[in-house]
Amino acid sequence: MTTVGASAADGATRHDATSLEARFQRNIDRDRRIEPRDWMPDGYRRTLVRQIAQHAHSEIIGMQPEGNWLTRAPSLRRKAILLAKVQDEAGHGMYLYAATETLGVDRGTLTQKLIDRAQKYSSIFNYPTLTFADVGTIGWLVDGAAICNQVPLCRSSYGPYARAMVRICKEESFHQRQGFELLLTMMAGTAEQRAMVQESVDRFWWPSLMMFGPPDDASPNTAQSLRWGIKRDTNDEVRQKFIDMTVPQAEVLGVTLPDPELRWNERRGHYDFGAIDWDEFTRVVGGDGPCNTQRLATRRRAHDEGAWVREAASAWAAKHAERAR
Length: 325
Ligand code: FAQ
What we know:
disordered N terminus
């Protein structure tokens, strides 16, 4: 029978793998948090690294679509808000990479995997931002979707991830409101501005619904992630919650969501909606979206241009270590 070294923290020396796993699952079932020095199955660690890294990469790549409008914001106020939001996204990426470091994987390794296309980032950031209304739509729909998906993750079983999510969600909430407020302002403007908002919502609605991942019956990871308490809801449950929350907001804004099948279902107590184009999702995740090549090329260039900073920081650290010795 396989034996596994247990963490020094709980004082044990060696345990039977099955009993360790049973105890781990019992802790999850009792809603206890798993911390970095606790024993965990390899699959749990791998799943966390995959999901958290994908999330971190999404935040970092996700700076690009809105960053596109930083130099062309229509007023100083809009520019200051947008700058703050894009900087928040960099911060979210850093908290999340820090959470993966508690699982034994460093940021440099993960960044290399992103650049080598060995890890994913959210499909939504492969769509272009063609007008300034897209800044508002990303805040309203993309951050709105991110909040629906991430609030349950504040109760994720892995402590460092759950704690990072608490702070991220607070900031995402500000992001969502600034997007809604920007769109509301444009909707009170000229006919041209209103048309710009509608056109932007038409482009972003369906890709926003794809952010929640494939339908439950085509999601290979959901069942195990629920058992491990990494995820708290299924992809379809969170997608439905987002739709139910967003339809009344669209009414307040005065925009039409581009789905003729969207209507309230009294019996289900939810909105029904039309079919999502999962072929498009597969294409975009597979690298063939409108901006995949551009997003990765920009990330790769930024990484290359930052090489001297990493070298200087390492040289500085080595010098200080030498002096300390
Ligand atoms: N895009 O079995 P599942 C943000 C992949 S942050 C690309 O259902 P899982 C903030 C999935 O990785 C947005 N790939 O997977 C912001 C898996 O592939 P793998 C990011 C996707 O993990 C706002 C495969 O498909 N948020 O927006 C996508 O159980 C504005 C099968 O899927 C997070 O990452 C997708 N949309 O559930 C920033 C939140 N969906 O790895 C800037 C945390 C699925 O097996 C501006 N993550 N895949 O090869 C999660 O909650 C989960 O990972 C899901 C996917 C729900 C995204």
